[in-house]
């Protein structure tokens, strides 16, 4: 298994830890293959964003570089999430997790809640994942972690295909919602400031790649038209991460349905931009 090699360090010296979770056992999607994403994103990053010169490898970096020490932990099984993340959070490192289906996020957030109270959850997704009549799958994540987050400082971004049950839950719990149409109507800078005004100091970011329009990210498990652009998504991520985060996950890349690894490449660049923005 290849590893992401941005400023790679040993675990003890690291600020940021990358963890792959190649599991899609809680997905109900008709598209299968998200379990391949962690390795494919790493492979694409090393292939497309590295350059050989004088027999030495040079890595393509974000424009402001990467100053933090990064350790790629490798892949773990779903049942290893509690103990792995207990250690990472105890050691005060920032995990950047690569899925896999979105349901893994609920386990990570529940583990984080044991260490940090009043978590602001920033949830990028085409779907609210706020089904509460069914539990423990990739469409119930937000409902599954409701008791672990501070609802008034949490926000969903990119939503455009909610079910009625989800609309009812969003209204009932008064969750802040930002749609692609909000971004189109207002400037991205105003939207980013609105998000920063909502969220608290203890922030976790969960990013489903179907938040982004399929024209930018075709290789996802549940593509939905009329999504946000890749630049707008990364702009918002960088602003949020710049304020400070406890951790982040990136999920639902589906290499089986990708086109020329465009989505895996975008995911790898997004991870790089996130790492470069950590203060």
Strand/helix succession: EHEEEHEHEHEHEHHEHEH
Based on CA inertia axes, which overall geometry fits? globular
CATH class: Alpha Beta
End-to-end distance, in Å?
Answer: 29 Å
Structure description:
- This protein has one domain: Ureohydrolase domain (Arginase, Chain A).
- The protein starts with 15 loop residues before the first strand and ends with a helix.
- Strand 6, helix 4 and strand 7 form a beta-alpha-beta unit.
- It is globular, with a radius of gyration of 17 Å.
- Helix 2 (81-90) crosses helix 3 (104-113) and helix 8 (230-243) packs parallel to helix 9.
- The protein is of the alpha/beta class and 279 residues long.
- Strands 4-1-5-10-9-6-7-8 form an eight-stranded parallel β-sheet, with helices on both faces. Strands 2-3 form a two-stranded antiparallel sheet.
- It has helices at residues 37-48, 81-90, 104-113, 141-144, 164-173, 180-185, 188-198, 230-243, 262-277; strands spanning 16-21, 50-53, 56-59, 70-75, 94-99, 120-124, 155-157, 176-178, 203-208, 247-251.
- It is built from nine helices and ten strands.
- Helix content is 33%, strand content 17%.
């Amino acid at each position: 298994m290849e590893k992401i090699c941005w400023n790679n360090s040993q675990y003890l010296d690291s600020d940021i830890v990358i963890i792959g979770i190649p599991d899609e056992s809680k997905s109900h999607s008709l598209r299968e293959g998200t379990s391949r994403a962690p390795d494919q994103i790493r492979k694409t990053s090393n292939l497309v964003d590295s350059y050989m010169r004088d027999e030495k490898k040079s890595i393509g970096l974000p424009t402001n570089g990467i100053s933090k020490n990064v350790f790629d932990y490798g892949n773990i099984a779903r049942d290893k999430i509690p103990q792995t993340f207990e250690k990472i959070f105890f050691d005060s490192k920032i995990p950047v997790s690569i899925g896999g289906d979105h349901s893994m996020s609920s386990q990570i957030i529940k583990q984080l809640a044991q260490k940090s109270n009043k978590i602001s959850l920033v949830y990028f997704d085409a779907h609210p994942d706020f089904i509460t009549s069914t539990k423990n799958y990739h469409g119930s994540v937000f409902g599954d972690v409701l008791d672990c987050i501070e609802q008034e400082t949490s926000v969903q971004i990119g939503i455009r295909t909610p079910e009625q049950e989800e609309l009812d839950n969003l209204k009932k719990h008064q969750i802040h919602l930002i749609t692609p149409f909000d971004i189109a109507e207002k400037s991205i800078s105003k939207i980013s400031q609105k998000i920063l005004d909502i969220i608290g100091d203890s922030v976790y970011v969960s990013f489903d790649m179907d938040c982004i329009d399929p024209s930018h990210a075709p290789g996802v498990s549940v593509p939905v038209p009329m999504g946000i652009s890749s630049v707008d998504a990364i702009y918002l991520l960088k602003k949020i991460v710049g304020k400070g985060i406890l951790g982040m996950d990136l999920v639902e890349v589906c290499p089986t349905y990708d086109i020329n690894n465009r989505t895996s490449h975008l995911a790898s660049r997004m991870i790089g931009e996130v790492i470069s923005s950590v203060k």
